[in-house]
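Bumping my old thread because nobody answered last time. Still need a sequence for this structure:
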């Protein structure tokens, strides 16, 4: 069967020559569908009304392959740096049946855990996907508030999605997959305030849903092609907030915001916050474990929002400290 794979994954699997600016720790696949996605997310190159080719998702090209060709001679032992396979599913009628074929094939060739990012699904499909071997399931909410969601994914762009239904499906998935085996994506830079993004992350944490942060990337041919990417300083504060919320159990009352909803202070001992920043961990790509999405949101020349490796963060740690000025006393 046909499938798409991110160009980095294609190179990693040795199916095309090329130089990787950073090693991917996951293989990224996408369902193959001749037409555009049936949804119409304003930021997405796959959207129904985007004029971009179906070969693109975010900044990346996704060439098509027969799945058997892509994994010909593949064995986990020859690719020890890989930690996960992620399947991104476009929205179309028979997508679940295609995803099941992909998952069944992957289970035959690899023992790597499988993540699936897909439209919200009914309970029956979620159960089947778990039974067939999906390890983490992701329903991307993408926008921090219902109002923004309607504007970029829902009713205002004639999209099929509903904010509350996304949240309900996440909740159902947590019941079936278990807490933190369910992920959502949050795109920073769609117009939310930092406070709204922080509130969203707390809300997800409470539900047992993991959050992968993405920086909005303006892409030619999409509705939002003219919107600017987020300020790096704001993104850094939210990366730090994400780490504090999910890894350090920080409470909402420890975050202090200014009148415009920017994070002004975090009530944590200075030594602790400095230690966390210097560790570099908050600035790594976030989401499912082992997902590093190299250069998904950024050019190799920078600015880098999500770092694909700790070595790359460490090189930039002085710059990051400056970007976080004000939060480090
Ligand atoms: S966080 Fe990474 S591995 Fe998980 S669904 Fe999103 S892109 Fe895939």
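Sorry it took so long. Here it is:
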């Amino acid at each position: 069967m046909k499938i798409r794979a991110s160009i980095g994954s294609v190179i990693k699997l040795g199916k095309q020559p090329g130089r990787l600016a950073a090693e991917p720790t996951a293989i990224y696949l996408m369902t193959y569908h001749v037409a555009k996605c049936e949804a119409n997310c304003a930021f997405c190159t796959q959207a129904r009304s985007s004029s971009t080719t179906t070969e693109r998702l975010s900044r990346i090209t996704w060439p098509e392959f027969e799945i058997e060709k892509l994994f010909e001679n593949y064995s986990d032992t020859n690719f020890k740096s890989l930690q996960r396979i992620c399947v991104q599913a476009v929205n179309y009628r028979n997508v679940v049946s295609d995803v099941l074929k992909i998952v069944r094939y992957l289970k035959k060739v690899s023992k790597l855990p499988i993540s699936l990012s897909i439209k919200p699904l009914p309970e029956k499909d979620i159960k089947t996907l778990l039974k067939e071997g999906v390890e983490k399931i992701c329903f991307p909410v993408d926008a921090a508030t219902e109002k923004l969601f309607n504007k970029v994914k829902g009713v205002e762009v004639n999209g099929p999605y509903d904010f509350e239904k996304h949240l309900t499906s996440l909740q159902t998935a947590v019941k079936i997959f278990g807490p933190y085996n369910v992920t959502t994506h949050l795109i920073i830079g769609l117009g939310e305030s930092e406070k709204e993004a922080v509130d969203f992350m707390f809300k997800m944490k409470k539900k047992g849903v993991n959050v992968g942060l993405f920086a909005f990337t303006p892409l030619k041919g999409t509705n939002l092609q003219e919107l600017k990417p987020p300020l790096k300083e704001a993104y850094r504060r939210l990366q730090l907030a994400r780490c504090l919320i999910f890894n350090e159990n920080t409470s909402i009352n420890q975050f202090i915001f200014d009148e415009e909803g920017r994070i002004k202070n975090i009530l944590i001992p200075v030594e602790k916050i400095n230690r966390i920043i210097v560790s570099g961990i908050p600035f790594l790509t976030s989401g499912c474990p082992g997902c590093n999405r190299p250069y998904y949101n950024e050019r190799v020349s920078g600015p880098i929002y999500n770092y694909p490796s700790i070595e790359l963060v460490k090189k930039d740690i002085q710059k990051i400290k400056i970007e976080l000025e004000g939060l480090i006393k």
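DSSP finds eleven helices and twelve strands in the chain. Let me know if any region looks off to you.
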